Amino acid sequence: MIQFQARSGRFNFKNKTHRATLAVLASTLVLAACATTGSASASSDSDDEAPRYAAAAPMGEGSAGPFPSTYQRYPGRPTALVGATVFDGAGGMIANGTVLFRDGEVVAVGGSDLSTEGYDVIDATGKFVTPGIIDIHSHLGDYPTPSVDAHSDGNEATSPTTPEVWAEHSVWPHDPGFSRALANGGITSLQILPGSANLMGGRSVTLKNVPSRTVQGMKFPGAPYGFKMACGENPKRVYGNRGRMPSTRMGNFAVNRQTWFDAIDYANREDADRDLAMETLVGVLDGEILVHNHCYRADEMALVMDMAKEVGYRVTAFHHAVEAYKIGDLLAENGVCSAIWADWYGFKMEAYDGILENAALLQQAGACVVIHSDSENDIQRLNQEAAKAQAAGQRLGIELSDADVISWITLNAAKAMGIDDMTGSLEPGKMADVVMWNGDPLSVYSRPERVWVDGALLYDANDRSRRPVSDFELGQPGEGDVK
Amino acid sequence: MKRLLTQQLALAASAIAIAASPAAAQDFVIANATVATGDGSEPIEDGVVIVEDGRVTYAGAADGRTYSTDRVIDVADAWVTPGLFATVTTLGLWDVGAVSESNDTRAGGSPFSAALDVAPIVNPTSQHILVSRSAGITRAATTTLPSGSIFSGQGAMIDLDGDANPVMRARAFQMVALGERGGRLAGGSRASAFVLFHAALREAQALSGSTGTPQTTEITIDDEVLLSRFDAEALVPVVNGTQPLYVSVERASDIRSVLALRSEFPRLDMVLVGAGEGWLVANEIAAAGVPVIADALDDLPETFEVLAATQSNIGRMQRAGVQVAISANSGTNPRNMPQAAGNLVALQRIPGASGLSWGQAFAAISSVPAAISGYGGQAGVLAPGAVGDVVIWDGDPLEVGSVPTRVFINGVEQSLASHQSRLRERYRDLDESDLPKAYDR
Q1: pLDDT band at residue B134, thresholds of 50, 70 and 90?
Q2: Distance from C-alpha of B62 to C-alpha of B52, rounded to nearest angstrom
Q3: Cα separations (Å) of A169 from A30, A165, B246?
Q4: How many angstroms separate the CA of residue B76 from the nearest CA in chain A?
């Protein structure tokens, strides 16, 4: 992410790219430190062997761990979308297709011969249906709008390694950006990551894009945690400027490796005190937490993959990965996804070699492609970004079907977030996260017409009552506008 | 081969204000084109574009006239448009955003603000110029940004042909930040920004001999100079109305206050930049006859001055009669201007939203920004007398997948190569069986 990185080439007075100042972040340290105490709870005193106080179990997915998801799907009607061009997210395309969903789940996907008895039938002739779009890299909620310093909660930039912080504790559920991502982008699931100031930035959280009073009410039930890491310029600049390690790329690796070795020692000690940072790292070593590594340069990605082998963890995805096309073979061999922009380049040295053909060349090499946003604006247009990357590849003569390109922003993202058994494609039994577009989603002229999350209609372009308005926007100019 | 087209040269008596480069320019005729002239009209099927001596002499339907030429480009129904006009940009002023040594866009440590002048520092072979050109942008407004004070310095109009003379017009406009940003730069409040602005213009009036006595004192905060004598002198053409003043402002109430400045400084030739809440005061902007350069896609309350931001902003202002260009900053790069325009076309099908027709949207990235920049009828449009900036596309130019296949500036065909295109060619495959990639070029 580039929250620290002014894209100075952008002509911009609205501070879009200058959200965080280190001074402000540093001043929050005291508050953050205070917030980490006092989390113990009384245990049952009927068991003499148990300590008097014990915190809840440190690990566990979704509702099993602390801060469990309280999300429950909203009511929906049994719905049949009929006559649409259907991209199933898994590389399939059905012309004149039918999609059936009820009770929050996809029931069937097929042709015009599917019976729609018992369903509310929506004539989707001329329209397109896809799974809900998934953004694997967002800072909605932890860098919400308005982008004021008081909202700058994405980087705990007080130490180069902060595996102990969890992005969910920074997410402001009233960020107006969630509603724009839903209405204009058809986003139904998204991963909120800590920023990239730190080598180890903390845990991510995966959300359903559902308005909620609490972050727990958005947490994707059963989604594994992610772990944000960052290569390159950001960590070495942030800490080097303070005269501390790391100030170089070699320093980045030294700090990372030593921290991993400490985690291995911790994991091997049976009498270790609870350590939030080490618990996250052990979760990674155990394969329960997925590594999402911000990394631009090809040579650095190659080094990170070897570091992962040395330590014994797996990199799930490189994020931004502007130079991934230079090592598509290595990425394919190691089974690492690249979560990338279509066309960002040039705003920092390590982004100098960005090219439009990145996604296509990766696909050609057999590597996994995900298109991400890292932006409260581009998250509203992931479909268009994917289309740009597709066209660039086609100009090179690389075959990229529309259905495959849709998978870049649906199933591939779900796989890299560890939620592909639940969402990301239109398959019977999966969550009914569905977008009906008013035209080809790979065209600039198309927009979501309706969006369902777990079978509940949460956006309808033709019904103003199905358009969420955040608390922040109530009573403000433009409240409830089409945006 | 000499071909006779059923097309006759429409002679154009044009007042030439842009120096063409006829030396390398070849006359040519583009035939069988889907022509979008950029004037706001819808595309013309089976169209023809004729360029002679670096200028357009005809663009429109093949109407049966005859014309004889050596060079016919049969584009087989491809789209043909004028070159895009990007405003406001920093093209040619930086290489890598975060590499401060390579980045001349902000001079926050400088004792100068309004006096800054980008004309001598534009690098015509900057990669961003090459990348923008390969995306169909042929001309642009470029400027430093308000950093040390509320004034940006003097921007220039440039062409993107990469030759030794990128500057079409030096000191073409001044910019001032008067919203939230202006308030921060002026010491922490919009109130200070407005006082500084008034003081600067009064000083400029005095220097120009129109009113009062010039003062020589600087306005400073500690070591920071907010206005020097050189800056005040640079504002003389602004206060005289001979140099347009671009005002960066977003909030509806701030826009009203800016429009009211003309009661005190009646000759100000203003352009609003940003105007994120412009739709709330669209009638007042229209009545004032002030053009707007607006971001097309901002729809979030990024700051408290754009609480009412919506993608319908441009459409609503246009309906109220405001002349609006789509800002080149609507995406991450100027090359995304067509995407921004296409999105405004998409809004036409969203109930409650205000979009643009295809023709209006394309005009908002071609003829309208050109007109706001002082090149009405001369750039950003395919019409007799206009510069021979012609772009041939591989699809609908507003579609996200489309790119130019050929670009002409002043009738001269341009290279579409850049650092990016070279990387693309090098990494088409990863074969290093004979030699490392460093030998592959």
Answers
A1: very high
A2: 17
A3: 16, 8, 42
A4: 18
Which chain A residues have a beta carbon less than 8 Å from that of B402? 391
DSSP state of A435: E
Percent of the residues in chain B that have a pLDDT greater than 70, as a whole number: 94
pLDDT of residue A55: 72
| Strand, coil or helix: A31 | helix
- CA B96 to chain A, closest CA, distance in angstroms equals 5
User: What is the per-residue DSSP string for A90-143?
Assistant: SS-EEEEEEEEEETTEEEEEE-TTS--TTSEEEE-TT-EEEEPEEEEEE-TTTS
Place of tokens 């480009």: B73
Instruction: Give the C-alpha separation, A459 to A82, whole Å.
Output: 19
Q: How many Å apart are CA B216 and CA B221, to the nearest integer?
A: 16
Task: Please state which of the ranges A23-32, B20-29, B301-310 shows the lowest mean pLDDT.
Answer: A23-32
Contact yes or no for B317/B279 (Cβ under 8 A): yes
| Domain boundaries of chain A, sorted by first residue | 132-422
Q: Is the peptide bond before A109 cis (omega within 30 degrees of 0)?
A: no
Q: What are phi and psi of B119, to 5 degrees?
A: -50, -45
Q: Is 90 exceeded by the pLDDT of residue A285?
A: yes
Query: Cβ distance A211 to A173 under 8 Å?
Result: yes
Average pLDDT in chain A: 90
User: Which of A4, A13, A184 best probes binding to B when mutated, by most B CB atoms within 10 angstroms?
Assistant: A13
**Nearest CB neighbour to A146, from listed B301, B310, B345:** B301
pLDDT tens string A399-417? 999 999 999 999 999 999 9
With CA atoms as reference, report the closest residue to B341 among B320, B321, B322, B327.
B327
A277 near A212, Cβ under 8 Å? no
Specify the CATH superfamily of domain A132-422. Answer: Metal-dependent hydrolases (3.20.20.140)
Answer for the pair A13, B183: CB distance below 8 angstroms, yes or no.
no
- Helix, strand, coil distribution of chain B in percent, nearest 5: 25, 25, 50
**What are residue A338's DSSP bridge partners?**
A318, A369
Residue of A177, A387, A447 with shortest CB distance to B300: A177
Q: Residue A341's closest chain B neighbor by CA? A: B332
Distance CA A29, CA A26 (A): 5
Burial of A273 per CB tally in 10 Å (0-12, 13-18, 19+): exposed
**Report field, pTM of the whole predicted structure over 0.90:** yes
Contact A8 B346 (CB under 8 A): no
Helices A382-395/B337-346 angle, 10° precision: 130
- Report d(CA A199, CA A203) in Å as an integer: 12
Query: Which candidate, A329, A302, A317, A328, places its Cα nearest to that of A415?
Result: A317
Nearest to A234 by CA among A168, A174, A181, A297: A297
Q: How close B94 comes to chain A (CA, Å)?
A: 7
| Domains contained in chain B, CATH given | 1-82+380-441 (2.30.40.10), 84-373 (3.20.20.140)
